[in-house]
Prior knowledge:
By secondary structure, the chain is of the alpha/beta class. The chain contains 13 helices and 9 strands.
Amino acid sequence: MDEQMQLESGQPLNESLPHSxxxxxxxxxxxxxxxxxxxxxxxxxxxxxxxxxxxxxIQHLSPDYKSLMAELLSKxxxxxxxxxxxxxxxxxNCVYVIPNKNHMTLKNNxxxxxxxxxxxxxxxxxxxxxxxxxxxKHSNAIAVILSxxxxxxxxxxxxxxxxxxxxxxxxxxxxxFDGMPNSAIASGFVDYVLPPALMPEEILNYTxxxxxxxxxxxxxxxxxxxxxxxxxxxxHQRTNQDFSxxxxxxxxxxxxxxxxxxxxxxxxxxxxYLRTNQIEVELLAKDFLIGVTRFFRDTEAFEVLRTKxxxxxxxxxxxxxxxxxx
Length: 326
């Protein structure tokens, strides 16, 4: 039985399938808390019903009241909206909502539910799901963080980015509660900051670019690496900006974005185009730059630097100065 038939029948996927086979469609995890319902509705009002993605909504819910999320969201999309169940296989063009008494993870495209500790503070249901989403889907994982208080989701998006996925966060200016969006943005692991209505277009663009990245014709990995290296060197020569240490996946995705805008389908053709077009070189370099980031991303390392390394250097200097004075 092939994978499509397994998806339709609800039978488990063949564990011997290569990872790329099992990751044949995108799963979008949407994290929200206080004030998130309006943002979720706005996002789905603008999301096509035939985008072939699976959506999983992780919202902070009270364990004491039945959630009406599935019923309410059904009025904003033609996709099937259902409460998540243990072991359910995710299907394209379907939306799954976390039950109010459970944590949820993803394994082999199936949702796994565990009993939630109602006394656990803070609530980290979004982080828990995003970690599993990254592990299961890699570059086919997309994380969305909407309105909410606290910082849930911030650790999870780090896993998404390290796995090669995409992260979109609601523009804090449009969020009823900006705690979660601001925390995510401060982490430096965010690709786009947008109001919910504009997120679907960027998600669709991302998936189209990823498909183009997988379809470069007639290039071996060595040839592709050579051309990318030459493009990075050209940018360095023309703009004095060195992107050689950037992750190749990020570089490739943003190059494909520029190629799409110029209607160029060959990496070699784009390389030739760059050699004769200074403006395009500058636009590509601008696209490489991360718009939302922070210098102190590795918090633990800089904390050691602040509390141990710098004081020791100061003590050594102070000791030498006192010795010379004596």
